[in-house]
Design a protein that fits this description.
binds adenosine-5'-triphosphate, single chain, alpha/beta, Rossmann fold, eight-stranded mixed sheet, binds magnesium ion
Length: 297
Amino acid sequence: MNQAKGLQNVVKDRAFSRRNATAISGPTVLPRVIAVTSGKGGVGKTNIVANAAVSLSRMGKRVVIIDADVGLANIDIIFNLRPEFNIRHVINSEKTLKEVMVQSEHGIKILPGGSGFADLTQLGEGEKLNLLTEFESLADQADIIFVDTGAGISANVLYFNSACDDCVVIATNEPTSITDAYAMMKVMSREYGTKYFKLIVNMVDSEAEAKKVYGSLSGALDKFLKNVVLEYVGHIPFDRQLQQSVQKRGLVMDRFPDSASARAIHEIAVSLSRRPLKNNSNGNLTFFMSRVFQTTT
Ligand SMILES: Nc1ncnc2c1ncn2[C@@H]1O[C@H](COP(=O)(O)OP(=O)(O)OP(=O)(O)O)[C@@H](O)[C@H]1O
Ligand SMILES: [Mg+2]
């Protein structure tokens, strides 16, 4: 048995015993794992994740954010946190996931990525198993897990997107953002078989403008990628109060909770957390990591 097969069998066994445990003890609520991605950078992913997380945590949900942005990892900056460790320390078995995660004043747990996720493809089997075990422990601590991916369509971004329950694409009305969002969905559907995406249109003046963006994206998908479905989730208006909050290292949800962007993000967060699973995912972190690893082995 080769090493990759060995890991996959371990993953399967664990998933099986977990499902059996669920069957015996009744249904457990498994966390939803939601990737927020874009193609083009700077379209608002990190702000949407952070503010949606605050909104949901105020509603009593246990929220974890995985900062999988291997570039400028800035979820911690937006929450004004200075994490000492990151996922790299977990991979190296120097720290546990619990020790690496930092908590915001809202009670949101953040897993800093640092450069740790960048070389997911390079991990040895032992390192992958170690990560898998650690991630299993996270499954019981969260209702919603957001994965803030980096910009672009690098292999790492794609792994995370394909492994999550939901793949939420953020676009603005700029042609480059629309083209890049389309390119992302094209690669995801062709290379990873992802057929179902959700769309949030950010920084627009009106719903009509957002629907236009949705129209051009879904039109292109209908024409060129027949089986891919794009669901419109909502739009977030362009809002100077969000920018002011960023400049002061804060969140619009805290500083201007009645602003147009905060209200829109709240509605989107509620809707994302409510939606039933549309794909064949088990909403389970073991599966999440195993899917990540299956695409990398
Ligand atoms: N609704 C909005 N209204 C006005 N400005 C916004 C809005 N959303 C985001 N911005 C602006 O866009 C900037 C980039 O946002 P953010 O860092 O969340 O994007 P990102 O997609 O995570 O970027 P990256 O790809 O670099 O990770 C913010 O600093 C803010 O100034
Ligand atoms: Mg970001």
